[in-house]
User: Fold these one by one.
Assistant:
Number 1:
Amino acid sequence: MKNIYKMIFVALLASTYGCEKFLDVNENEDKVRAVSMQLSLPGAQASMAATFGGSFHNLGGFWSQYYTQSPDAGQYEDFDAYVVSTDFFDGEWSEVYTGALVNLRNIKNEANASGATSYALVATLCEAYTFQMLSDLYDKIPYSEALAGGDNTKPKFDNGEDVYKALIAEIDASVAAYEANPSADDLSSADMIFNGDMSQWIGFANTLKLKMYMRQSYTASPKGTEIMALLSEDNFITSDAAFSSWTSEQGKRNPYFEVQVDRLGDVNGRASNTLLSYLLDSEDPRVDEIYTPGSSGHKAKPQGDYANRDIPNGELSKPLITALTPVYFMTMSELHFLKAEALVRYSGASGAQGEYEAGIDASFASHGLGDGSSLYASGGAYEWNDAGSEEDKIGQIMMQKWVSMANQQNLEAFFEMNRTQYPPLSSAAKGTEGAIGERTLSYASTLTGYNTPRRLDVPDVEVSRNAKAPASTGIAAKVWWDRK
């Protein structure tokens, strides 16, 4: 599917920037660099959106139990069966390393050479986000020796923990360089995420660091001091970090819609009853924004129950993603839930309820539904319970975070589910559906016991050309921060 996604961001870039803009610039080195960065940044961000909003988004939908395979098709039975061939994501691996990351590194180099600290900061943060997501998905990845081109075609693989440390140092250095000497570059037409608003990019840096520090909460070295320092400063994003420059034209639409709905006929993904039953039981109006109902209302299948055709396909609810749906990198609801969890863990839960409720409100607002006060008010399905243990409070937060990420941050939801084990995995035997609020062990699982997917193996395209690639561990092997 690599070629389909490549068509998306190439078409988008071509429609946004033409040759005339480039040819109008005199052959002055600084101006050439400025134009090069202006043309490269939207393409790099579109490549990020096509990758994380396309196949990886689809995978996260299945493994977070938002989607399950339709009984009337079979394209993603392997996702539900917990068996993914090592060549399935060859295209995505190649695209992100030769597309987004190469362009971002070139922008960084050009920006640093010309003193364009604004471009350098944006490129560094986009690169850090991309490497962090890859590290969480594959654990060990090429980082310190990556992107050297022909100078090093066989880069070493760095441990995920080392990647995190290096990325945070890169983020801090780039923010410091920008704040010491902010360049006056106009990124409004080149930056497809925040339209050149550098205050939002500083907020993005802090939000990304908060997420990375929180990811380590169950490790032997939690980052409570660093987290509380960020919360004290309270300089985070104030709007969603999203790529929304889609149109209704073919090749320029949301990448999930472009492939799953348009190219493949919308025949595969259907609602998993894990999420649908939770929403219906809670009378949560977001159900109609997350799923399109079937012919007789909302119905779903247990996870992986695609061999059973007990419900006609036309009666099953399906993911509601349109041609214009943004690809979200980080959201306000995610930020509020990160802060709520941090306050529970490192500040005795003081203020956690307010952030929890703000997270629900932000999720409702993103769906055009006002706020969620009717559900978290006294007696509501999502009322904050302050009487439970620390883990009970974290469970409340993470269940709402899981709901809020549906269709918006599917892959991120998968990471957080593995980190915290919310929703909890049912102890029911395979072939038996979990209770409402529990995950179901996929009916089609090929893993032993109650093992579930935790990561991907390095794709064949890298293994075949790089002897330094790590040996396969299997998708049930935990990444470095997955310690609960």
Number 2:
Amino acid sequence: MAELDAGTGEELAVEVVASIEMPVLLLEGALSQKVFRNSSTRLARRLPHAHVQVLPGASHMMQFDAPTDYERAVLSVAG
């Protein structure tokens, strides 16, 4: 609940988020709760260079549920 109480990005000014010019990878676990998927959707609409990638069979704890897919996705943007 503490994580949910921290907010899901609605407190961020749209102009500030939209000013991010670098590529952004938004990872979603296919089994994640809807609140997390909704956050990715909202961010993707506001970030000009965002890409959403869904990891099948993973929850919000995707680094534990699908560590190989998670690592591959992170490394794809980290160089």
Number 3:
Amino acid sequence: MITFPGTAAAVVTRKILRLVGKGATTLPGKAAIRLSPSIIREKSRGKHIITITGTNGKTTTSHMISEMLNYLGYDIINNISGANLASGVATTLICGKDEMMRANGRSKGTIYVLETDEAAYAKIAGDLCPEVSVITNLFRDQLDRYGELTHTRDCIADGLNKTDAIAIVNSDDSLVASLGKGREDKTVFYGMGKKDMLRNNKLYPDRKSILPASPDAVYCPDCHIRYEYVSRSFGHLGDFKCPSCGFSSPISRFEVRYDLKQSPSNEDYPFAISDNLSGLTREMKLKIPGSHNLYNTCAAVSAVTVMLTKLGLSQEEAFEQATEAAGHVKAAFGRMEKIDVGGKKLCILLVKNPAGFDRSLSFVSEAEDAAGLMLLLNSNIADGKDVSWIWDVDLESKAEDLPENIFISGERWGDMLLRIEYAGMNVTESGDMSRAMEILNRALEMTPEGKCLYVMPNYTAMLSLRAALVHEYGLKEFWK
């Protein structure tokens, strides 16, 4: 009875919002928490829960985990819309069964896969009591909300301290890897194979998928001494070591084996994942292109393997099933999602911070089907009001490899136009958010058949654009 008022309020609110065509992803949860403050804790009891948090890759990784477990016969309930604050998580716990991803055939049980905002994780992790918690990475993002990265790292650490979850931790991110200190028996590391990363740095030093270290997290938080890097994947991710205290990139249980003879920007890029605990290695093909998705895929395989082990499978069988299921995932909305439009392709890549923008630009610079690029920049609260981060993105080194036709829109289109012009590139057409669909359709007209227009919006620009695409091209709503 303690949660009845909140549950009832959420159910009624959701029905009303859906009747008028709204997503109903957060308001039902807000009403529930207001009336029943303990509702997240009560609704989480006895459930199998995986959480995913971090700066970049949360939605893609949670989507991968969901599709993999669903393929393996589990019913999945997730916050697919990306509503990852306490209100969105509460909505999913209360109303998620109405949109459950049902397994084909007889279900093996229900698993909740919940994307969680980094700051919110500290507040709700103890109530959720997840069995598995994935931490992807930490990059500068919305500094007006999160503050410095060490604060974000401390928020996640606080959340982990309140749970008995097995933490799936990126060993190549120095801040994230430090979460394993003192939690060695409850931490599983994943990352790029150190030998492969070193070899690729030596063989392909100028490749766009390998970037100089960003200033995000290159100093040891204990010694304040700059890390020394043996090799890097991108940004501050790599094989690092503090020359003072000796803290270094941990040995990963799950490692990506890869070779940059081909570009990860191309579909079905071949790579492998090794489970160093069981000694197994499985050859795979990257189902969602982009070098950053090697990390997301490895994180998903790690999480699914650990969860299946908790559910009773042997380590070997769990890894075999996880890697096999990873071959059946598809892109989530706004994350390498390709849409057919009259024989042409439209690909949406969400960008919301310097590291994500760099990754997406690197991807497009190497994509063989890229015929145009459209950038949309907003500055609402959900985006971060400060857009100066676009000047931290290395556009100059990629300018000559990006498509000739560049289009710009969004509420802060002028800021983006100035940034592009300073990088030495010409803009084909630009205008504010009210002209976004007009400009996009113009860009599509200039896209040859069989080629792709790549669209990079930040968060609220993506939601606005996608709502327009639902109306014009019949896409399904983002919450479906």
